């Protein structure tokens, strides 16, 4: 298998019996550990009104993680741009880039990352149901590229700084936009697998070279649970499946400990729904994962893989990232 860049997606998930403080400690610990392994980037995701996730103030957490590390790129996976003024995001990420030059990424999504009532509380003025994602990205980009002192509204310290933009997607919609704007494309196949292959094909076929990229660049996020044996990996992965089960049941508890028999936890229709959501999950020992990833990379031809591993035990979680690194970047 040809070596490939690997990165991390983290949501600062709160474990059962834990707190936001302990979740953030786990996030920093994981960032430091994956940095020592040579992972490319460490992204945090914006979610709101979710009691089991501590990454709502995403830009603040990015700064905290960047300050606790020294080489790994840190960014958003993503900032949900409809929730924010582009000016505010330019100021935040201009500040982050000033503090941690050459290490900040700005992944942008068009979804609210929450329910509609909470979205309204975030001051999203979308009463007519229309939202121009492209226009907001162009406005945001303009704050970084502006060089005219006559511009009435300017973003400091963003002006003149280079923060890489990424378009995030969980359907085909953003594939068209990423291709049109010539930006790198990151797909959330870890929870939205249905349109993954179609979306990356659209992106590659329609890609237009830009000042950002000369050719398409695709990253996909997948769930991974690696362990010394297939049996242990299957056991540990039951925590991941319980987390997705909580989404289906609208009962988002803290991340649960693993269970011996997941079939005692869910109903058959729930199991089918969870397995559909987590179709791009890689669970097993090194030999099984190597075979799975070899086939996956041949089919998708990805430029980079982003991994999310939500395990109850932090040491098992870190071990999973270490084993995966040895598989993908021997």
Automatic annotation (TrEMBL):
Name of the featured protein: Luciferase-like monooxygenase
Pfam families registered for this protein in UniProt: Bac_luciferase (PF00296)
Biological source species: Flavihumibacter petaseus NBRC 106054
Positions in coiled-coil regions: none
GO MF annotations in UniProt: oxidoreductase activity, acting on paired donors, with incorporation or reduction of molecular oxygen
Alphabetized InterPro entries for the sequence: Bact_Lucif_Oxidored, CmoO-like, Luciferase-like_dom, Luciferase-like_sf
Top-rank taxon: Bacteria
GO cellular component, one term: cytosol
PANTHER family: LUCIFERASE-LIKE MONOOXYGENASE
Domain Luciferase-like residues, every copy: 5-294
Family: To bacterial alkanal monooxygenase alpha and beta chains.
